[in-house]
């Protein structure tokens, strides 16, 4: 039970740590299921980024005297399960790639909310160094989300629709 902002911070750090460790397990399966070379590469790169993010969480927890391991993040468990179901239910190809991007972006948005909250709590507590580390992770999550959008709009979604990727997706984006 959280009786103070410190308790809430501890619960939030542990929840986020659990979420990230679940993602470390899920990303190789997503990479294997993807057919788009760009998407495979994005999942591979995000695996390396996620490992660094876990290290940052451990660093923040150590600095604050908090054990990073706690209860399982049920929200991430559900998001990962949803992605696994898509891998099982859809045939490999552009439609599955589109589903994988959607599943990955749900994860990214959850993480952006978590890291934004952690950053704000740490700043409020005067823990600027830890806040800066969480803000760095927040930026990485936003960058990954943007990359996934570019892959979806520039390659995967047009392929899923049976279209060839357009050369200038940005021009068509404004018309939507």
UniProtKB/TrEMBL annotation:
Residues 140-176 are annotated as: Disordered. Keywords: Coiled coil. The keyword Ribonucleoprotein does not apply. Transmembrane segments: none annotated. Pfam families: DUF892. InterPro entries: DUF892_YciF-like, Ferritin-like, Ferritin-like_SF, YciF. Residues 40-67 form a coiled coil. This is Ferritin-like domain-containing protein.
